[in-house]
## 1
Amino acid sequence: MFGLFNKQKGEDAVPEWHSELKESQERWFNFLEKLEAKMEEFATAAIPELKEILQTDDDLYKRTFHKVYSGVNGQLSNIREKARTTYDEKIINVYYNYNSHISVLSKHHNLVSDFRNHCSDRYHAFEDNYEYWRNQIEKTQERDLEIEYQKIVDEYEAIKDKFSCTQCGGNIQIEKIFLIETYIACPYCKTQNTFAPSTQGRNLQNIARGLAEQRTAHLYEAFETENNKERELYHQRHELSLSKIHESNKKVLSEIQSKMDDLEEQRQFVIKNAPKLYQVYLRAMYDEWNRITPDLKEHNEKMYQNQIQS
């Protein structure tokens, strides 16, 4: 079925132990298929529930939502852990057991390597599937912060010219969106007046970073795309490296090595370039955050310096 243990024309009979490897691989493939089906069923049921909870949760900090969200991620992680544990016990241990008893000079040694490679590829496919559903669940916590921000701005525009001095009654213009209760001096009698922002106005400091991250998401995606290339290039190079094991033609070996060197050069470039793209994103995100809440700029810049130095 999987094309790993078929006898090649002109070769001796495939050894008896090949059927055990084939059975192990079949069980592994079937096991992952069942886990993936379970993961998909669980996630597709959880996603609409999470979205509804987020919309109906009146708590400013969305504590009910985050409690359920954490539980969903925990269940997803448990499914992933089952795959990881089974992979170590049923695939890697089996591979090392056969690999230690079968000489690398044996014409059938490649059957052991093929077993590991095919099972490993299937495991990586499961991991990709897991990442897909994890990302779908993560998206359920995304609120349209632009709408929330606009409501705060609209409220500010409506009240900024309607605040009066408690002493002389003179008009006091609210010059910016305040995040906390603040004393504002009357321009006429100099009396200190207390201005208390609304709950909605106070919430600006809670959504500011998230809004800044949403506005600079394209820069973060550029970083992630570049960062993920490193793993892809590593696996491509690794596959070429494995292909050299049973190759004796010097010309072919030279061509393979040339391709490996090229992939390694690309990988080293990505390793150096990805952090640069992250720095671009980070600076842009903090700049946007400071524009949204200028009162927090000093605090934010300290956070930024700590982050780039860590």
## 2
Amino acid sequence: FIQHTSASLAINENADPTVRGDLERHFNVLAPEGAPYFQHTYEGVDDMPAHIKSTLIGSSQSIPITHGRLNLGIWQGLY
């Protein structure tokens, strides 16, 4: 669980870095920084897009711990 209103956590493929880049580009299309229709911009042009992304992605994950380490699948990573 991440205790921040404009951050999120996701488990996804971590073997190929292009996955993370593609996801970032896609979410930046869905919630672009500096969009003129955003009113909540007190903390900068990225503030409201971050709130939208955290709503879509979520703020928590359940991850098993084995021997004190995250027990993710071989290709998985926590973003």
## 3
Amino acid sequence: MVTLKTKLVFGGFMAMVLCCLMYSCASDDGGLPDPVTTENDTNDDPVDDGPSIIGFLACDGGQAGSYPCNGIDLMSQIPLEIFTALRGNDSWGWVDPTTGREYALMGLNNGTAFVDITSPSNPVYLGKLPSATSSSNWRDIKTYNNHAFIVAEAEGHGMQVFDLTRLRDVTTAPETFTADAVLGEFGSAHNIVINEDSGYAYIVGASSFEGGPLFVNIQDPINPVVEGGYADGNYTHDAQVVTYNGPDTEHLGKEIFIGSNEDQIVIVDITDKANPIALASSEYSNVGYTHQGWFTEDQRYFLLGDELDEIQIGNRSRTIVFDFSDLDAPVVHTTYLGPTFAIDHNGYVQNNDFYLANYTAGMRLIDISDIAATNLTEVAFFDTYPDNDDTSFNGVWSVYPYLPSGNVIVSDITGGLFIVARQ
């Protein structure tokens, strides 16, 4: 029998293994310098006259400039040097409800960059919110009610809150911003998840609740309130939280947490924050590291990425598709294997499209319209890392496909911010 203590030790060990594989023990970091850890460091890599923003490049004959592609154009690229940063990580987007302007939010090792991409081929770097404490290769951003909420794996960082409407008033770009609020009831955290329907943020991968989700009421964004959490005996690496509207009528209208917990998925009813109810856990074959997943639009299927199976098992990029018709008894529906051996990272569903951050293989676009019949088909891609498609931690970290314009935000660990669009 696996005891709680054993599971926690395993979780911590796997987190260290993943960190080691990504940035310490391997020689696949592209020769990048070690991350900077100076307190309040905001100027790791000064801008010089070399790097510049790249504008529109059509995907023609399988290439957009130096980038391999199929059916996706490059609208623009902003190198990390423009942001005075060494590494990129997460990304998200925001649309100003008053002006309709579109913005990219990109996580950096030393802060968060804000870019006006309303004219996608002429992006405007508006400024950066520096890290609350030290630099970190892991930073995560989500939005709610016109505010950005940011966590990082930096000691004492907590959750930064930034009023995005301030971006309307930038007159001398780029500016150095300050946070509008900081929630300091936890320090380091790996990720943040927000259910915009309920107005709750969920901090995961922190030291509280054994790495499980910390419940934070953000209905008043600059006055966040912790309302408990859930410890299920395992570290949560990432999650999705929804107000459920899927086929399982027993749970309609409930707030459901789906945690990617290193070696399994967990499904928890968190409607009552004082009394979370575990519904199910689900494992699958050849587990490497249960990393991140996302519901289909009808909330029947859940597409899961395993971050270490390509390394440990040697398979091609793998997405495990679960059937969540019964939240109390999820089952594996099918498995999709991509065309390369690149590692899969964050993936998001928009209508019948699955946008996958596939590290060295770039962003892959997969048609899931026939997912019920187990048919998933790649229809387009844009490779931000043209050097190779190796099984290594380089290239695309995350994608954001939810802008009204159809433009897609892509964050690359060493290449910076890319804005791309389907042809």
## 4
Amino acid sequence: MCERGLIRVLIVDDHPIMVAGLSGEINAQKDMQVIAEAAGGEEAVRLFRLHRPDVTLMDIRMPGMNGIEAITTIHREYPRARVVVLSSSAGDIQVLRSFKAGAVGYLLKNLLRTELIETIRLVHAGHRKIPPEVAQQLAVHAAEDALTSRELEVLRGVVKGQSNKIIGSELNIAEHTVKNHIKNILFKLDADDRTGAAVIALRRGYIDL
């Protein structure tokens, strides 16, 4: 049972050691309590429906339903849900996808020790939380043209190291069309070559391996 007045927290992460650390820190606070833990997106949605937590801490990279998909599902059913994304990446695209899905906070895992508790209290009080380095990434790329859905599909093939011919075959488009898409991708990502585009795509969160 959770005492009245406590901030009720749901933790979603597929790493038991991470969950144990988060739970210990949260439960040590007089005004907070972990009311459930999930190891994946599907379980997170089920437990959210069951417990209706005040704040949910959601990892992005999980097997099966990932964090973005889980946030989208939860937010569709519970628009007032307060979800904080936990991530190792400050990539602007991943951040944008998180907030578009319905997240209200973004917390880098290397800052958990110093900012976890403050972030939970802030989002519970109705505020948003974005670390300064993440906000800086968003500002740097704010004016850039977004990649189209087809360009993203081609980019996934580039990241996998596939040739233009193979990418075209998988997407059922001509090889010269793939070449044109790659030209646009290099321009939009300000990359010199395919390898550079792959590195940028992974760093910024366009592609999640």
